[in-house]
Amino acid sequence: MSTYRLNNLLSPHSVALVGASPRHSSVGRAILNNIRKAQFKGEFGLVNPRYHEIDGVAAADSIAKLSFAPELVVLTAPARTIAGLTDVAGRRGAAGAIIVSAGLGHGPGSLAEAAERAAQKYGMRLIGPNCLGIMKPGVSLNASFSAHMPAAGHLALISQSGAIAAGMVDWAAQRAVGFSGIVSIGDQLDVDIADLLDYFALDEKTHAILLYIEAIKDARKFMSAARAAARIKPVVVVKSGRMAQGARAAATHTGALAGADAVYDAAFQRAGILRVSDLRELFDCAETLARVKSPPGKRLGILTNGGGIGVLAVDRLVELGGIPAALSSAIREKLDAVLPPTWSKSNPVDIIGDADPVRYGAALESLLVDPENDAVLVMNVQTAIARADEIAVAVTAVVQKYRAGQRASPKPVLAVWVGAEPSIGDLLSGAGIPNYPTEDDAVRGFMHLVRHREAVEALAQVPPAMPSEFAPDVDTARQIVAAALADGRSWLDPIEVKRLLDAYDIAAVPTFAAADAEEAVAHANAIFAQGATVVLKIMSRDIVHKSDVGGAVLNLTSADAVRKATAEILARARSLRPEARISGVMVQAMVVGTKARELILGVADDPTFGTVVVFGRGGTAVEIINDKALALPPLDLQLAHSLIERTRVSRLLRAYRDVPAVKQDAVAMVLVKLAQMAADIPEIRGLDINPLLADEAGVLAVDARVAIGRAERKFRGSGPANFAVRPYPSQWQRHIEVKDGWRVFVRPIRPEDEPAIHEMLKHVTMQDLRLRFFAPMKEFSHEFIARLTQLDYARAMAFVAFDEASNEPVGVVRIHSDSIYESGEYAILLRSDLKGRGLGWTLMQMIIEYAKSEGLKAISGDVLTENTVMLAMCRSLGFEVKSDPQEHDICNVRLALLNQA
């Protein structure tokens, strides 16, 4: 697993610091001081061959001469020595190292590669190089050169910038916010963002994860880890480089629209990550997520003593997509009984500027029990009439009383005390009430909670590998692209594009090729006979944008007009682009959709995330209007509609005045088909349909371009090589007959299987649960089972077997690959009352078959020595069984797959 040995690095029992010096300005000395100041409880040693002691701490000549084998080695020595030190640490038994040193370089032949090779020999994990280090308050470890040590808490921070990590520590100290861990990852030679997402997602002390990202190295691994983590707890990211223009030279319109930052935005949205724009918003988001859970809806009740600030809060709430809560009649009566007659009678609940602590408390009690709101924002503008600190005391008392009386999850309460003294913020924070300097910050904090809930709900949707609504002619489409590539071309010609769209049942304007004017007239006469006018367009594999050479003439009504226009188009093109290969003109019927909307749809290739799907406002001014949204495939109808709704043009798809609404699902279905086309034919490097006309009758592609090239495998593992998110692997669905004619249906697990798995666990004995989980298991939380059912199919797979007669789950087998995608760790669990009927053997064979298809080299697992049935089955399947050298009650089992048939 990608979390392999990370616990040894982040919660070690022993630490060695290599490279500390007496120099007070040195990095090593700063880390030494921090480790001592944090009062690390485990064994600690220094290594420096030039000094016998540093600041009263004895120093060994080498790692090998330490009196203990360090779990974690912190390296601050010169870059040229790091590979050798890593090798010595590995031989001594270290589980991993933090390489703080910089200057190791990158790529083949570098010092970094040498260090990585040394670590791999011993199974060591590496954090860094060129990093700030790590801070784990829960184990009193500050192996960093940060100026401060954060308090223990429930936020984890993973940062590509040491300065950002250090800044977060300073902010946290001011806001009484604690951390479960802070890791500066530097150059990510080994341990990367995805590994740490996996680690903190499973960490019970971490309630939310914060990310500072500059760039992603392995997009599929990142998406898999991020989606898995975000299903369990909030993940918030701030990314630098928002203004990078990564697609200036893109040839297709959709390529130009898919800027680098927009693709990251789409990736974060698909992963269920909350993106914030800057550090202040990250801090505020952390403030919210560290203290309260997401509400079930987005209705906000607002309590204030200032009408103006209440109105500002409502304006911001509506702008961000929230809903000002209505007041139920019963609550309005309660408020009438405790408030002066001049209160606002509506939300915001303005209790007037002379409101005292008693009035605040009474109003808040009413709002907290009102079923018409999902959260309450309490705001106070200081006056000379009532003391702000006394009001804060009254509010915290009401909130604490309300929380104590709630059996279910209490609704969030947020606060704004305008211009308050720091002590008031401390009071509110101490009571677990997120508080902010302005109403804008508070409303954003509430909407972060809302967005997190929406993201989790969206993550539960699993797009199918092949939508069932259509059956494309994939073979024909592939032949079209293959023939063009064999011809040495990078673009399909218009006739090929029309055939490609036909293969995927995407309606397009009939298109005819004409080599000269007379052939164009012949095709035009057939169109005139149907009562339509004609469009002519230049046909050249070298002229992508026809408007650049005046290569399109519209609304031709006669044969003479067609003949003349053909000659003029060909002459202009040859004059303006003499080097271009011109094969004639295209002849199409003129499509006039007076009430049709012009849209652009397509796919583009991103160097980091692979294929992206683009949707937006179409037409010749598409880049200038720049109304677009992006999504990572695969798509289903729900995801396609979500993509459409993120644009301004989506509003025009609905009915307005005398214009009927666009046919339901018509546009979304084209997006689904394009995503499927990109999965089937990775040689398509870019495609745009512009415009796609959409109206109440359906959709019609008027013009389209398709760029092609050699397919590149961007991502490891099976599935579409150009997709950062793997589709649901429906090809692994099987109907199987085991012993005595018992029939089971086996398929990859889905998030919605959680209730069924919970029910299955009721039929597993305590002994079998202990054999599976290595510990007594009496209760299973939602978070625990979510980890079992919510997979991303990129690094982990689980097959669940259902009894075909009862449709009840009867067994689950799973495998999770390691961080370098070479080996997978398996686990299996069956209903206790159905053991001995051949299901375990069948599921093990299936997971072995899957591992082979993924290209894994081995399957491994840990089995308790008393689990003799599992050990016997492993031996029968060819596993090698060995006693664990450290844990004598555990056997390590391993099956090599390289030589398997």
TrEMBL record:
Task: Classify the source by domain of life.
Answer: Bacteria
CDD domains, alphabetized: NAT_SF
Q: Which residues form the signal peptide?
A: none
Which keywords does the record carry?
ATP-binding, Ligase, Nucleotide-binding, Transferase, Tricarboxylic acid cycle
Classification via InterPro entries: Acyl-CoA_Synth/Transferase, Acyl_CoA_acyltransferase, ATP_grasp_subdomain_1, CoA-bd, GNAT_dom, Ligase_CoA_dom, NAD(P)-bd_dom_sf, Succ_CoA_lig_flav_dom
Residue ranges annotated for the N-acetyltransferase domain, each copy included: 744-900
According to the UniProt entry, its GO molecular function terms are:
acetate-CoA ligase (ADP-forming) activity; acyltransferase activity, transferring groups other than amino-acyl groups; ATP binding
Instruction: Tell me which SUPFAM superfamilies the record gives.
Output: Acyl-CoA N-acyltransferases (Nat) (SSF55729), Glutathione synthetase ATP-binding domain-like (SSF56059), NAD(P)-binding Rossmann-fold domains (SSF51735), Succinyl-CoA synthetase domains (SSF52210)
Any GO BP annotation: tricarboxylic acid cycle
Q: Cell membrane: present as a keyword of the record?
A: no
User: Does the record bear Nucleotide-binding in its keywords?
Assistant: yes
PROSITE patterns in alphabetical order: GNAT
UniProt lists the family membership as follows: In the N-terminal section; belongs to the acetate CoA ligase alpha subunit family.
Q: What is this protein called?
A: Bifunctional acetate--CoA ligase family protein/GNAT family N-acetyltransferase
Q: What organism is this sequence from?
A: Bradyrhizobium australiense
What lineage, starting at the top, does this entry show?
Bacteria, Pseudomonadati, Pseudomonadota, Alphaproteobacteria, Hyphomicrobiales
